[in-house]
Write a structure and sequence with these properties.
By secondary structure, the chain is α/β, with parallel strands linked by helices. It contains 20 helices and 13 strands. The strands form three sheets. It has a seven-stranded parallel beta sheet with strand order 1-4-5-6-7-8-9, sandwiched between helices. Strands 11-10-12-13 form a four-stranded mixed beta sheet. The chain has a two-stranded antiparallel ribbon with strand order 2-3. Helix 4 (about 45-60) crosses helix 6 (about 115-125), helix 9 runs parallel beside helix 11 and helix 15 (about 285-300) runs parallel beside helix 16. The termini are far apart. InterPro entries: Methanogen_methyltrans, Thioredoxin-like_fold, Thioredoxin-like_sf, UROD/MetE-like_sf, Uroporphyrinogen_deCOase. One of its GO terms (molecular function) is uroporphyrinogen decarboxylase activity. It comes from Maribellus comscasis. This is Uroporphyrinogen decarboxylase.
Length: about 450
């Protein structure tokens, strides 16, 4: 059975002979060609060649066309900054800088980098008719936050009518882009909305559910499948995510896979995840990767489960580690051998000797990478903004778990989820971005 048909059966919760494998190859495709992220994401030929190399190496059942949550934001007026190893980062928010919502227009096929994505999709559809193509759109709430900035969290309470108008617009953008992707040949529309991890279920039902349901309903009318991607500590929202009626939800390592499995299957929805991106696939060994793959396969089970990383693969993810995952997907004997291996950790906690300074508050933010992860970016910005009131009394450090040193610091501080903010070694804010007043209050408490 080809990958597309296998995934379609999993989405329908039908019996399958094996679990499908969907590596989220984004800028990692650039690594396979030895080109940087900016060159890769701006050129259809590079993306097609990168995906083709990934297909050859990893034997996927499905694969995203382009993993870039800044495409729509850039078209709508957000300034972006490119880096060599990550998708671009949004660095301005037009609606907080005087631009009127009414002045924004829906994107067309000729705007921004959409032509690159459409050309790529058509080429991949022709080349790989048997592989499921995922078309990714920026979720309405994350796009709204790109346009308005963290001010949106205050407006949820102070001006919910405006937020509703903004969400209506962002939903229309999502439907428009989805239609382009489906018409070009995508099989699955993934609504990638990482910033929804920042709100509680009640706010989610008010400001997310009615909007993303429109997108999922649209995809269903087109007789295609949909997936709802979230990252971060979003465990509190899994049930309301399922109530939005996507065909699939996909989560990262911050949320226990068995927890998601129980809720998703009870609600008749398939689920995917949640291979550890950095500590295993990027920085671990082939043995680590095999163990992680088998652990996910065993916890996910054989019904309605798709094996995938928790988010897009870091650019420099080790090729051999992904090939090790591929082996576990296809080789039952190799899985049996891996299950008999003893569990060992590849990393030791970092020593905190000398890390804390007398008379100063040390704020440590554990992130995936604020240059590539939206929740991480906005948490770092919020902490830096709040701590600027205290001058040299406060030291702010970002520890990226894309680096071994970051993983060791995460272990030393006892952090379990990203992004997390610690103040003087104590976990203060987990995943959710706190208001500036709460950060200031926590810093003042640590100073006294």
């Amino acid at each position: 059975m080809d990958g597309l048909k296998l995934l379609e059966r999993v989405f329908r919760l039908e019996e399958v002979e094996r679990v499908p494998w969907v590596p989220f190859v984004g800028v990692h495709g650039g690594k396979l060609l030895n080109v940087d992220a900016e060159m890769y994401l701006k050129d259809s030929k590079y993306i097609v060649d990168g995906i083709s190399k990934a297909v050859e190496l990893y034997k996927p059942d499905g694969i995203p066309v382009a993993f870039d949550l800044q495409i729509e934001a850039e078209i709508l007026g957000c300034k972006i900054v490119w880096s060599k190893e990550n998708p671009p980062a949004v660095v301005s928010h037009p609606l907080s800088e005087g631009v009127e919502l009414a002045s924004l227009s829906l994107p067309t096929e000729n705007d921004g980098r959409i032509p690159v994505v459409i050309e790529t999709t058509k080429a991949l559809r022709h080349k790989y008719p048997e592989i499921a193509l995922y078309g990714l759109i920026t979720g309405p709430f994350t796009l709204a936050l790109h346009l308005l900035g963290t001010e949106i969290f205050m407006k949820l309470f102070e001006d919910p009518e405006y937020v509703g108008e903004l969400m209506d617009f962002c939903t229309d953008v999502g439907i428009k882009f989805s239609e382009m992707l489906l018409d070009a040949g995508c099989d699955i529309i993934a609504v990638v909305d990482p910033m929804t991890s920042q709100i509680d279920p009640e706010s989610f039902e008010t400001f997310v559910t009615p909007y993303v349901k429109k997108i999922f309903d649209f995809v269903r009318l087109k007789k295609k499948f949909s997936s709802f991607f979230v990252c971060g500590h979003a465990q509190q929202n899994i049930e309301v995510m399922c109530d939005c009626k996507p065909d699939n939800i996909s989560i990262d390592e911050n949320i226990p896979l068995d927890y998601v499995k129980d809720i998703a299957l009870q609600k008749g929805i398939s689920f995917g995840g949640n291979l550890k991106l950095t500590s295993v696939l990027l920085l671990g060994s082939e043995i680590d990767s095999k163990k992680e793959a088998v652990s996910c396969l065993d916890r996910g089970g054989e019904k309605g489960f798709i094996l995938a990383p928790g988010c897009d693969l870091p650019m420099n993810t080790t090729i051999e580690n992904l090939q090790a995952v591929t082996e576990m997907v296809y080789d039952d004997y190799a899985r049996q051998v891996t299950r008999k291996m003893e569990h060992t950790s590849s990393h030791d906690p970092k020593s905190l000797d000398g890390h804390f300074k007398d008379g100063k508050v040390v704020v440590d933010i554990i992130t995936l990478d604020s240059a590539s992860c939206a929740p991480c970016q906005y948490m770092v910005e919020a902490v830096q903004h709040a701590s600027s009131n205290f001058g040299e009394k406060v030291i702010v450090n970002e520890h990226k778990i894309k680096d071994i040193d970051g993983i060791r610091m995460m272990m030393a501080l006892g952090v379990k989820n990203v992004p997390t903010t610690c103040i003087n070694g104590k976990v203060e804010f987990i995943s959710q971005i706190p208001p500036k007043s709460e950060i200031i209050r926590a810093i003042k408490k640590a100073l006294n």
